[in-house]
């Protein structure tokens, strides 16, 4: 991407914000704390992981090295996956500022897998990490809410156990951050920044999953989960308890972001690499595929843009490293509902207005519309009439014209997603963020501009517009020439 294209994409206002005044009297203490350090990150190629790596390289560029734990995937070597990651538009700004060769020299791939004993890391790589690393971010997790329990336990819970065992072997470890979720203790309607009891003994659950087969675990999954609606919340809760067990032995902290949504301001407004959560709903509704949802429209979710979440992670890291675990609460929330409450109805209406007036989508199945239903049975009838019957009709037409059917498959995926969404859309949780409020007061002006964790003043119209543009170009792979009033330049 050319420099002029980056400037066009980010926009003048954001570019001015990113180019901070170099006030010699104000030192960026957060960048200083990372200077000459080696970091080890699991899950660095995931949605939040990519943004974390980009922010570290751009704002804390004097760090020595970032080691990323990467699984070989689809026949690609981990080094190839890193180069592929850096080809993403997310990294264009830092490549412009620092130079591609510089940032590539700062990042190294470590072949491994959190589901394997010893993280699946080769002995020579293990020795390097044990000697050099001082900070660990454990971000790796399966975020599929409907993941089979046994697989979710191995990835989320046993993977955390293996990461903790590795952390204990690091010779000069100063900080271990476990990235959890604010939605892992769903029986607590107001979640505070403290440790909660797990739903079961994590060691026994891991042991049971190791000697039972997939089929045996699946047969008793619902009984094991009890009132917990999905395997994601269950296994993340178990993982937190493993970290808490080691608070006395490790300089560890549990970080709980809420529902992480696309980038707000930097480096690319609206950037995402998936259509999970609100972005998926926006696209499905804009395409006319989503016509009905079972949801209490007056309820609200706790959303936080991924760049703000990552800022919170870095500020929490600095706070811990600067003050030590005896003075710091070892649980911190990156949440927004304490200060901002936007109902589901407000989100949908704003998204609909953007789709209808600013950024209509191509190849729609039906004019954007539909509504929330507070009665489950009314929703089921509407889903039959507005989702399933039209899908059957479209697939029949596709077969008649010699094309493979596709709409029923789309609606099955949509129905699975809505099944997960319904639980969260019809309940409300609040999250205390005392630690964030405390840390804000300690930041100087330069740090406040670089690592924004203040109350997020979102212009929702602009935000949804940027999200739609990025989803169309980066997820749906539409040409920029197909987007009306296209004002941003993302490379094909």
TrEMBL record:
The keyword NADP applies. Gene3D superfamilies: NAD(P)-binding Rossmann-like Domain (3.40.50.720). Residues 41-313 form the Thioester reductase (TE) domain. It is a multi-pass membrane protein. One of its GO terms (cellular component) is membrane. It catalyses: a long-chain fatty acyl-CoA + 2 NADPH + 2 H(+) = a long-chain primary fatty alcohol + 2 NADP(+) + CoA. GO terms for molecular function: alcohol-forming long-chain fatty acyl-CoA reductase activity; alcohol-forming very long-chain fatty acyl-CoA reductase activity. GO terms for biological process: long-chain fatty-acyl-CoA metabolic process. Keywords: Lipid biosynthesis, Lipid metabolism, Membrane, NADP, Oxidoreductase, Transmembrane, Transmembrane helix. It is found in: Membrane. It is an enzyme of class 1 (oxidoreductase). Residues 387-478 form the Fatty acyl-CoA reductase C-terminal domain. Its main location: membrane. Catalyzes the reduction of fatty acyl-CoA to fatty alcohols. CDD domains: FAR-N_SDR_e, FAR_C. InterPro entries: FAR, FAR_C, FAR_NAD-bd, NAD(P)-bd_dom_sf. Belongs to the fatty acyl-CoA reductase family. PANTHER family: FATTY ACYL-COA REDUCTASE, MALE STERILITY PROTEIN 2-RELATED. This is Fatty acyl-CoA reductase. The keyword Secreted does not apply. Its EC number is 1.2.1.84. It comes from Glossina pallidipes (Tsetse fly).
């Amino acid at each position: 991407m050319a420099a002029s294209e980056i400037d066009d994409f980010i926009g003048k206002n954001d570019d001015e914000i990113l180019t901070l005044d170099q006030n010699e009297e104000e030192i960026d203490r957060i960048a200083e704390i990372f200077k000459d350090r080696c970091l080890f990150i699991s899950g660095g190629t995931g949605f939040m992981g990519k943004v974390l790596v980009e922010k570290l390289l751009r704002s804390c560029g004097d760090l020595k090295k970032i080691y990323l734990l990467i699984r070989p995937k689809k026949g690609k070597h981990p080094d190839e996956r890193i180069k592929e990651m850096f080809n993403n538009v997310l990294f264009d700004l830092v490549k412009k500022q620092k130079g591609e060769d510089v940032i590539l020299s700062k990042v190294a791939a470590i072949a491994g897998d959190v589901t394997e004993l010893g993280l699946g890391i080769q002995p020579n790589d293990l020795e390097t990490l044990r000697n050099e690393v001082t900070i660990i971010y454990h971000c790796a997790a399966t975020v599929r809410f409907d993941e089979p329990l046994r697989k979710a336990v191995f990835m989320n819970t046993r993977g955390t156990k293996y990461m903790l065992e590795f952390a204990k072997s690091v010779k000069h470890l100063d900080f271990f951050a476990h990235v959890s979720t604010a939605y892992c203790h769903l029986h607590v309607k107001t979640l505070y920044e403290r440790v909660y009891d797990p739903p079961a003994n994590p060691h026994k659950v891991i042991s049971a999953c190791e000697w039972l087969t997939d089929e045996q675990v699946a047969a008793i999954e619902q009984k094991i989960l009890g009132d917990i609606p999905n395997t994601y919340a269950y296994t993340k809760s178990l993982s937190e308890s493993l970290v808490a067990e080691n608070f006395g032995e490790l300089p560890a902290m549990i970080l709980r972001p809420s529902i992480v949504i696309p980038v707000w301001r930097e480096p690319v407004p609206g950037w995402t690499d998936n259509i999970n959560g609100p972005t998926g709903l926006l696209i499905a509704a804009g395409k006319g595929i989503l016509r009905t949802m079972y949801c209490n429209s007056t309820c609200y979710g706790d959303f936080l843009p991924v760049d703000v979440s990552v800022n919170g992670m870095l500020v929490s890291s600095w706070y811990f490293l600067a003050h030590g675990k005896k003075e710091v609460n070892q649980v911190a929330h990156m949440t927004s509902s304490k200060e901002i409450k936007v109902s589901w109805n407000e989100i949908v209406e704003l998204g609909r207005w953007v789709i209808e007036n600013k950024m209509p989508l191509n190849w729609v199945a039906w004019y954007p519309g539909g509504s929330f239903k507070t009665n489950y049975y009314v929703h089921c009838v509407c889903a039959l009439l507005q989702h399933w019957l039209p899908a059957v009709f479209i697939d029949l037409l596709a077969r008649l014209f010699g094309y493979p059917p596709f709409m029923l498959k789309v609606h099955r995926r949509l129905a699975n997603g809505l099944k997960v969404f319904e639980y969260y859309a019809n309940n409300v949780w609040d999250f205390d963020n005392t630690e964030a409020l405390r840390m804000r007061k300690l930041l100087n002006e330069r740090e406040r501009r670089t690592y924004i964790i203040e109350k997020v003043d979102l212009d929702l119209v602009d935000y949804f517009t940027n999200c739609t543009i990025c989803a169309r170009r980066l997820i749906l792979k539409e040409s920029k020439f197909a987007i009306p009033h296209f004002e941003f330049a993302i490379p094909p």
